[in-house]
Amino acid sequence: MKILLTNIKELLQIRDSSIRKISGSQLKELPTLKDAWLLIEGNIISDFGNMNTLKEIAVDQTIDCSGKIVLPTWCDSHTHLVYAGNREQEFVDRINGLSYQEIAAKGGGILNSAKKLRDTSEEDLYGQSAARLEEIIKLGTGAVEIKSGYGLTTESEVKMLKVAKQLAENYPTAIKTTFLGAHAVPEKFKDNKSGYLEHICNDMLPKIAELDLADYVDIFCEEGYFSVADTDKLLKAAAKYNLIPKIHVNQFNAIGGVRAGVENGALSVDHLEILEEEDISALKGSETMPVALPACSYFLSIPYTPGRKIIDAGLPLALATDYNPGSSPTGNMNFVVATACIKMKLTPEEAINAATINGAYAMGLSDSHGSITKGKIASLIITKEIPSYGYLPYAFGSNLIESVIINGKPL
Ligand code: NIG
Ligand code: FE
Question: Are residues 161 and 92 in the same domain?
Answer without folding.
Answer: yes
